[in-house]
Write a structure and sequence with these properties.
Length: 288
């Protein structure tokens, strides 16, 4: 399986029990030295309460309403640097709810327009002690001491800092590459704080679903933002051509007992919406 993942394949294993799924992802994470990360993710999410732990390593996905979709993204951000994402299907009887996996073209010119929403230190900020840097990183997800504003960054909001003398702002910054353990090289990643804050990503995805007849339309009509549960945070419009960002796609209607394992950095995941017809979609995620 590691060999297939290092060729950037997506792995689908059918008829797996929940405990077998736990065992398999634990084994793969172990071979990549990500065992601790797998365990911490499951425990930490449970502790924070934004996900519910379902099995030893699998957690609930964010709940959403009928007709709401999930636009393409890799789980997390550059700082969390999640290498593996694994999906396990308990039930999937909704009218819709297909899993859409999109392979990222690392060399696409579209990267030139994309921006990541991140926190940066502003000029005039006072120098911080090592202890303060550690605190600032934990509080504001600064990725390194060199996260200072550069001329290319666009400030979108000032941040009121709890640390005296530390001046911060939320900015749209040119994305930095992340190291893929599976490929052994740096790659461009469509992290959550790139795709999920970008109006262009939503427009692309809705168009893609329409073309593949996968968009479910509410009977009373709809405005685009109603289909998008994270629309309030989509404060940016890159104008990037997302068609050029992806070089391959896999569309899966997951069945109970299906386990999907993929490189979280090179494959973005998305879900089409579902109608209000009776049915249940229960898919769990494990991350490492
Ligand atoms: Fe996700």
């Amino acid at each position: 399986m590691i060999e297939a993942l290092s060729r950037d394949c997506v792995i689908l294993i059918r008829n797996v029990s929940p405990s077998e799924a736990d065992g398999l992802v634990h084994q793969i994470a172990g071979e990549l030295g990500l065992q601790k990360k797998l365990e911490l993710e499951a425990g930490f999410s449970d502790f924070l309460g934004h996900r519910r732990r379902i099995t030893k390593y699998f957690m609930s996905v964010n709940s959403r309403d009928d007709y709401q979709l999930v636009t393409p993204h890799s789980e997390g951000d550059r700082i969390s640097n999640m290498q593996l994402s694994c999906f396990y299907c308990f039930e999937n009887s909704k009218d819709g709810g297909e899993t859409i996996l999109l392979n990222i073209d690392d060399t696409s010119e579209a990267w030139g327009l994309l921006r990541e929403k991140t926190t940066k230190i502003l000029p005039g900020s006072k120098p911080l002690s090592r202890g303060m840097i550690t605190r600032a990183k934990a509080l504001y997800r600064l990725s390194s001491p060199d996260d200072y504003l550069v001329p290319d960054d666009q400030i979108v909001a000032e941040v009121k800092s709890e640390i005296p003398g530390l001046l911060l702002a939320i900015v749209m910054a040119r994305p930095k590459r992340s190291f893929s353990l599976l490929l052994g090289r740096d790659v461009n990643v469509l992290w959550d704080n790139i795709g999920s804050v970008d109006q262009s990503c939503l427009h692309f995805f809705v168009r893609m679903l329409q073309e593949r007849e996968l968009l479910k339309r509410p009977p009373d009509g709809f405005e685009l933002h109603q289909l998008d549960p994270v629309n309030a945070g989509r404060s940016w419009c890159s104008g990037a051509d997302y068609e050029k960002l992806f070089c391959d796609e896999i569309i899966l209607k997951l069945k109970p007992g299906d386990l999907v394992i993929l490189n979280n950095l090179t494959w973005a995941h998305a879900v089409n919406n579902w109608t209000s017809l009776p049915g249940t979609r229960r898919i769990a995620v494990a991350l490492a």
